[in-house]
Write a structure and sequence with these properties.
elongated, about 300 residues, eight-stranded mixed β-sheet, N-(1-d-carboxylethyl)-l-norvaline Dehydrogenase, domain 2, 2 domains, binds ligand FVH, Rossmann fold, alpha/beta
Amino acid sequence: MNNETAAPVTVIGLGLMGQALAGAFLKAGHPTTVWNRTASKADQLVAQGALLAPTVDAALKASPLTIVCLTDYQAMHELLGASEVALDGAMLINLTSGDSAQAREAAQRAEKSGARYLDGAIMAVPSGIGTAGAVILHSGPESDFEAHRATLEALGTVNYLGADHGLASLYDVAGLAMMWSVLNAWLQGTAMLNTAGVDAATYAQFARKIAADVAEWLPGHAEQIDRGSFPADVATLETHVRSMDHLIEESEAVGVNAELPKLIKAMADRSIAAGHGGEEYPVLIEEFGKPREDCPVR
Ligand code: FVH
């Protein structure tokens, strides 16, 4: 893409991620304006052709689209809420991490100030930005997303999730739940096998196959959840719980932490107590849908 067709874009926040975002826009030929609280972080980008705006207000006015990527939403509100900043007419896409309530509140505040607002979440690390592997989620008005899709595609693979501004953050934290659960499950197994002299690299090869196999079950389990019906045609929840006992007993016998196995079994036991012992594993969605005050692990 050359400069004539590439739309100008502004990036506010030049931390590790912000610098990667601005660098990707420059590489894709977008005239890029940047601003950062610590101006020296713009030096390399200016050397690559970025324009350093003297103020946040000037940065917003320099382009039809402004990407915000700061530590948190509080930082964004401090910055954009300053009296000398006029948001009227700005198009903001906020790629700062946060939760869905923060995203919806930020959208209300932006729109009250006359700006248009899309929320977003980056499912990548800085080094991945600008490659197809960098998935970036967006939620808010579809017309705004489509109007700037071409510019956003300089960052990676962009996905539009829906009009609810909270969706990108919800998907982001749900994705983090998957990430940490898979990593913690692998660490549990690694700790157990370490006691038998099996190193992490050896078990990782086995664990990768298990993770891939379980991932294949998700569409069928999702169908049961969406239908609200969990006929057991693979294994009943009671069968799973008997093996959960084995996992707890084994963890304790080899002397490793059994908190995670006990939490897994505690939820399954509650579902069985509610009468779901003869149903397929995804019936547990009902337990995940209930907030619990008496969390077994503080
Ligand atoms: N880094 C990553 O791999 C992850 C990938 C997934 C998405 N996250 C989120 O991206 C946001 C920024 O992350 P970051 O890694 O760039 O964070 P830092 O390097 O710490 O840079 C923070 C920038 O925010 C500026 N800043 C902080 N507070 C204020 C404030 N009150 N006023 C103005 N700017 C502020 C900070 O400025 P400075 O310290 O350089 O002056 C940086 O530009 C984040 O939500 C991740 O969760 C990244």
